[in-house]
Recover the amino acids of this structure.
């Protein structure tokens, strides 16, 4: 729930809403009347994909129930927060919809002040901020810089990007995996035939990346071992990335990091075989046929499964036939705590898709099927299963 007050910094609310939406938050906006003189409700409604509210009753006579809004939100963010609104919050004055929602909120409330430096440093403002902090509200510190008055000092509303970073950290601190170390493998491996050719597969690494994102959002300390993919750097935020190319490199990275992990998720599509003697020069097209001798790679999952102690080990199975039976055999052989089954026979599942349809199988023959959904949502299902096992 984003509360916007009457400050010149209200224009930043548009940037803030866009960033919140980009972070996959559902956003509803409540504005004070004075805020509407600085930024249009239509702008924030368009960006948030929800109607903006400002009155207890809208033009059609519908009642905007402040209690329901206060219960709906996971967090209420007031940005920008003016001296007037903060004083009303501290005094329990509910003469507008924003303050009524604040007084009804059961969720955490974050406040990003915005005002000129003298207002910000006035004893009454400082006292109000202290009082709001004692109530359990979160004060996102104002920043120092050039102000609308032309003066330079402290009072600028925190930049939207900094507010997003703060909120991400806040939710990670409250996450169900707070402090847990999780190692995730993702993407394909490329096994060299010669300096320009390789044996590989169609894995994009998206599923492993989304698991890393979901674990990070739950407060985990995430390390991802990533095979060669086209995923941009912007997709790899908030966790350590170890880039590898071959199955051997992925195995070595897993071995080096395994003992320090609480949870290991093996989502990578690792090559089962690698060329025995890759060419040191580009192989010329000189014969009608070409035979390639290959050697079995180290089975990363089986090796880690044999040495695990108190860790949770989660595996993946991509099957084209006898899916359940093959996945159950792999689950037992590799000592997984559960296995995530993908079937290439399911439309929209597996490689080269932004969606996935998974089945989670546990050692007690507990089989749980999920509907087709985005890989981000499927990752959350996997993380939910992990947190259940930990509890």
């Amino acid at each position: 729930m984003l509360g916007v007050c009457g400050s010149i910094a209200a224009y930043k609310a548009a940037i803030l809403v866009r960033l919140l939406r980009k972070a996959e938050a559902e956003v509803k906006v409540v504005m004070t009347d004075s805020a509407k003189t600085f930024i249009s409700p239509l702008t924030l409604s368009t960006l948030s994909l929800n109607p903006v509210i400002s009155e207890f009753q809208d033009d059609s006579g519908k009642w905007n129930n402040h209690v329901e809004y206060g219960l709906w939100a996971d967090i209420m963010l007031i940005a920008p927060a003016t001296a007037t609104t903060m004083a009303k919050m501290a005094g329990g004055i509910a003469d507008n919809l924003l303050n009524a929602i604040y007084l009804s909120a059961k969720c955490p409330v974050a406040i990003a002040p915005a005002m000129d430096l003298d207002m910000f440093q006035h004893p009454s403002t400082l006292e109000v901020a202290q009082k709001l902090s004692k109530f359990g509200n979160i004060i996102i510190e104002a920043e120092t810089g050039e102000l609308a008055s032309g003066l330079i000092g402290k009072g600028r509303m925190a930049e939207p990007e900094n507010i997003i970073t703060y909120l991400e950290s806040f939710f990670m601190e409250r996450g169900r995996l707070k402090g847990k170390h999780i190692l995730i493998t993702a993407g394909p491996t490329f096994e060299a035939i010669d300096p320009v050719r390789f044996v590989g597969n169609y894995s994009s690494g998206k599923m492993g990346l989304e698991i890393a994102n979901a674990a990070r959002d739950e407060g985990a300390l995430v390390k991802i071992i990533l095979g060669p993919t086209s995923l941009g750097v912007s997709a790899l935020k908030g966790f350590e990335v170890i880039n590898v190319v071959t199955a051997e490199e992925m195995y070595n990275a897993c071995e080096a990091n395994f003992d320090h992990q609480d949870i290991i998720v093996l989502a990578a599509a690792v090559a089962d075989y690698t060329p025995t003697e890759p060419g040191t020069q580009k192989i010329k097209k000189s014969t009608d046929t070409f035979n390639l001798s290959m050697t079995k790679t180290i089975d990363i999952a089986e090796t880690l499964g044999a040495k695990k102690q108190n860790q949770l080990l989660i595996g993946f199975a991509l099957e084209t036939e006898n899916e359940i039976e093959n996945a159950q055999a792999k689950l037992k052989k590799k000592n997984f705590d559960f296995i995530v089954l993908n079937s290439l026979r399911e439309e929209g599942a597996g490689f080269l898709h932004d969606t996935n349809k998974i089945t989670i199988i546990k050692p007690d023959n507990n089989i749980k099927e999920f509907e087709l959904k985005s890989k981000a949502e499927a990752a959350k299902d996997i993380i939910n299963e992990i947190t259940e096992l930990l509890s």
